[in-house]
Amino acid sequence: MSDLAVGKTRPRRLNVPGLSAALPLAVLGILFFYPLALIIAQSFATGHGTPVFANYISVLGTALFRNALFHTITITLAASLGCIALGFTLSVVIAFVPFPGARLFARAIETFIALPTFLVALAFTFIYGSAGILNGAVMKLFGLTLPPIDFLYSAWGVILAEITVYTPFVMRPLLAAFSLIEASQIEVASILGAGWFRILRQIILPAALPALMAGGSLCLLLTTNEFGIVLFIGAKGVETLPLLVYDKAIQEFDYASACVLATINIALSLGLYALYRSALAWFSRAGLV
Question: In whole angstroms, what is the distance from residue 117 CA to residue 214 CA?
């Protein structure tokens, strides 16, 4: 009777061989791999007698592509480093420097994750734009006829907007990692005479390293593929790969070139992810994470 009762309470499972793997693979195939295969195939589509890589040779040989690739890499690296530096600083202050409203401040920063990126670009336009609040106040104060602050419509404006948007993606894993550090560790270190820099280097930073790598790699991928901020700010002469894909496909109807650029952008993102995995493996072997 007891065996029967136990048997009745056991959860039943569908014994369908291969179903657990086939269903996710089918969903991925329909929603991801099939569209990706179409894009890659279109990037190689040429007329009869035309070399297979003719589209790639045509796109890669243009100055427009080289400028877009340069802007994409430089903006990505600058914005990601800015997110890591700002996110680490804010997280340390919130976690280890008690002040009234620290928890509310952390929640307010996290709300940026739920906001569309173009809203931050719009807010920056209202504040730092040519007709924005800051320029209007300075022009009125000093009697100027032209707006003196014009960094917004450059690569620096894009970088600042991306740092504002993506810093919370670094702070969330950092704050979670800092919550695991025992307060007694810092108190004992302080009693033994360790200064704040030594505590930061020997206690806080080792605990933060895995979270920094996770948040930094996420920012690296997000900023590489950022489109809304660059388009909305409209920085002069700043063309990135996602924006160039949009221009070729929507404005010029050059779908072959757009697919080439999209394939290169995908390869760049996968390369950055592979670099992150390699760095994580190296840190693991070194015992740092």
Answer: 21
> Is 198 contained in some domain?
yes
Decide if pLDDT at 188 tops 70: yes
CATH classification at residue 251: 1.10.3720.10
Predicted local confidence at residue 104, as pLDDT: 84
Q: List helix spans (H) across 131-204.
A: 133-142, 155-178, 183-191, 196-199
Burial of residue 181, with CB atoms counted within 10 A of its CB: 0-12 exposed, 13-18 middle, 19 or more buried: middle
> How many domains does the chain fold into?
1
- For residue 15, being part of any structural domain is answered with no
pLDDT value of position 1:
47
Chain centroid to Cα 68, Å, comes to 18
Give residue 143's region: left, alpha or beta (phi > 0; psi -120 to 50).
left
Residue 170 and residue 223 in contact, taking contact as beta carbons nearer than 8 Å: no
Is residue 270 domain-resident? yes
The alpha carbon dihedral of 264, 270, 271, 272 has a sign of positive
- Residues of the domain holding 195: 58-285
| pLDDT tens for each residue of 15-59 | 555 566 788 788 888 888 888 899 998 888 876 667 778 889 999
Nearest to 175 by CA among 225, 241, 109: 109
Spatial separation of the C-alpha atoms in residues 73 and 79, rounded to whole Å: 10
CA separation, residue 102 to residues 91, 94, 97, 141, 287 (Å): 10, 6, 9, 35, 33
Pairwise CA distance, residues 140 & 122, whole Å: 23
Q: Is residue 152 part of a domain?
A: yes
Structure tokens at 103: 């928890």
Give the closest residue to 232 by CA, choosing from 164, 166, 136, 157: 157
